[in-house]
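Supplementary Text 2. Reproducibility record for the structural model of the 320-residue chain.

All settings were left at their defaults, and a single model was retained for analysis rather than an ensemble. We include the record here because the model underlies the residue-level annotations in Supplementary Table 4.
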Amino acid sequence: METNELSKNAMGGTELMMNRLYESVDKDLLDQCQIIPSRVRELDETKIRILWQHDLPGDPESEHLKNEGHNRFHKIVFVSNWQMQAYINYYNIPWSKCVVMQNAITPIEAHEKPKDKIKLIYTPTPHRGLQILLPVFEKLSEEFDNIELNVYSSFKLYGWEERDESFKELFDRCKAHPKINYHSTVSNEELRKALQQAHIFAYPSIWPETSCLCLLEAMSARLVCVHPNFAALSETAANWSYMYQWNENPSEHAGTFHMILSDAIKSINEPHVQNKLDFQKSYTDGFYNWEGRKHQWTALIRSLLNQPKEFPKKQWVYRV
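Retained model, structure tokens:
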């Protein structure tokens, strides 16, 4: 399985997807491929080369795709249509070189939610929207007696603890608030259990997600998901969520988020909301299930096996 100096100690979404791919797909097929998750280091010209892109097109690690750099790969796999089209426009990649293979999860087991209070949860890394969520929740905690926020967020997820220092003030505010529990980073298994005890996934995203595993697992856990229609979030949520218009102004964004999140809290136990959550879980567990995705990966790899391993030589720049 392909790793690099940045991913070897990480357990973020990209690493989870690579692990699940190698657990799911036939090893003999995988052995014939070099599947590279986002960051290219060295290419093996004896294998079928698949670039599995998780990042944004403006990322320095993607700059090697300029000047027909895509020709070094047999196929480039993207995790959403939004991301694929952004790369096609940015690097002039032919559509025929691309394929969308949306992320997948292991469905969250059926469970009962707590009845004593309404629990909100935030699970992305802190730079993706915690600075908007925190003041909004502080305000909501004055309006609702029965709410609680659990924050599972830290760059320890990637082994980058030093980056947490920039968010220490936010973390300290979380720890000091009587209705907020700050948990830093935990294993995916523990996080999935926490989702079973939550009611609302509160994500005022300010980061252009190319996909969002946090959102997928929240949808599978029957959470009301409150987030903007920013980047690939609308595609990922497929209209099942409490989605609102994104705004680049932080104050305007916070105001809209407060309004939608307040409505979600008020209506969480309404029969029509609960019925919709049943359909949401059914859709998520069916469409975003690894059982289905592994067959798509298998078909993709088999379709590439007869292609020549080596391409015409050219001076390529791997990294910027």
